[in-house]
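To whoever is covering the structure queue this week,

Two jobs came back overnight. Logging them here so there's a record in the thread.

Job A:
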Amino acid sequence: MNEQDKKLDRLYDLLPVVYRQRDSETGEPLRALLQVIAEQVNLVEEDIAQLYENWFIETCEDWVVPYIADLVGHHIVYEAGEPGASTTAGGAERNRILIPRREVADTIGLRRRKGTLALLELLARDVAGWPARSAEFYQT
């Protein structure tokens, strides 16, 4: 019995032995019914697992990235061009997919560190392109 058959028979295996014996005596119609139901259960479980993966920017599907960006208030700018133009078609496609995901992930990270001194240094470096150092002047 392979792994696929085990997945299809998992509902049937939950039945008490008396029902499985009666089912085998009548040609296993109950087993066939439960296999059909198990196929749909497997599909629903896979969908639920993918929905869980879509909660996070690192593991979500490509179509979810704009929705997560909207939730955190990041506006993806496709018209600005792609930084670091790639010479190959595969590299250009990879940049088209990964750059918005990276930008949204950076926005989420910045929102998590909102109000910290390290965030000010990081923002200054990202905006100006120069190394930056921030200091707290209110402390004695």
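Job B:
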Amino acid sequence: MVFHVLSWILDQEPADYVVSDTVLVTPSGGELLTTTDRTPITKED
């Protein structure tokens, strides 16, 4: 079984943000299939 999990961060300026993960559920537990880097991207003014 596979779940797609969305975590929303609302009311942030200039936009809202979402982090999504795909998780494979097996009899031995869950396995995160998402390989996206979680390091925030920042921009200097």
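Note for Job B: The longest strand covers residues 17-26.

Please reply-all if you pick these up so we don't duplicate work.
Q.
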